[in-house]
């Protein structure tokens, strides 16, 4: 009625809707209820948390951010207020493949889809993706710690060469100084090159490689690329490669490693998770994929792999397909949750 009072008389609308004019005017003068006032105050906190995440968080991570700030509130209430205010997370896109298989020697698969580690620097996963710009592609290679999900090494280049993955490995070695860490990747020509293999032997790094054309064999690193692309690359258009470099640097070092909350590690950031483990190691807590996939979804029998046995070519969706297994949870999907009473006071 308030929205249409310029076009129709209030008395006429009240008569058609079956309400009294006095009741309408009393409603207009009435102060908002305590619940409405609490929702308004809570919405301001939600908007601040959503803006601090570069408008990438959905309801689960916004809810975790509020709890970290001492605000106890149900996740369904957060989701309801975000939906009413039009606050949404980001979604993922399709990709171009960057994996080019070479004729180099492949390393055995030491991971077999079990992306878990009891502590940092036991398992690293690595891969390459591209950053589109108006001046051409910029390629990004990363090394990710499977325990904390922290990006421990990364490098960017305008050319897809072995030097790119070597620079990422060198950064990881300089910042972490591991002992016998497993370095897991796909069978791209950069990782199967002689130069990369020699550097791994010199540093005491144990190379590991998944099968060809199988995104699930390097799922953890693929998951990071999906996060990067849906939370940064899909939402910006870079005019130059220098602009893209600065944006990727700010995302990895300024947001992802230090502030972004990860559901797999209790909605902590990678840096917070490592600091928490260093302060109180406690019992081993495996951060990674919840369980290894025993039956691979491509209909072939499980193989025992070593350096003497080659892997069979696959016809599976790689990064250009980016297909998730049936029943996989969507990043910003809605699901039923337990109700929680709120003691939030505006």
How does this model look, in words?
The protein has 346 residues and is an alpha/beta fold. The chain folds into two domains: 10-85, no CATH class; 92-323, Ribonuclease H-like superfamily/Ribonuclease H (Nucleotidyltransferase, domain 5, 2-Layer Sandwich), CATH 3.30.420.10. It is 35% helix and 9% strand. Helix 4 packs across helix 5. The protein is elongated, with a radius of gyration of 25 Å. It starts with 9 loop residues before the first helix and ends in a 67-residue tail after the last helix.
Can you tag this structure with a few keywords?
single chain, 35% helix, 346 residues, 2 domains, elongated, Nucleotidyltransferase, domain 5, disordered C terminus, alpha/beta
In the predicted model, the low-confidence regions spanning at least 5 consecutive residues are 286-346
State the CATH architecture of the largest domain. Answer: 2-Layer Sandwich
Which CATH class of the largest domain applies here? Alpha Beta
Number of strands: 5
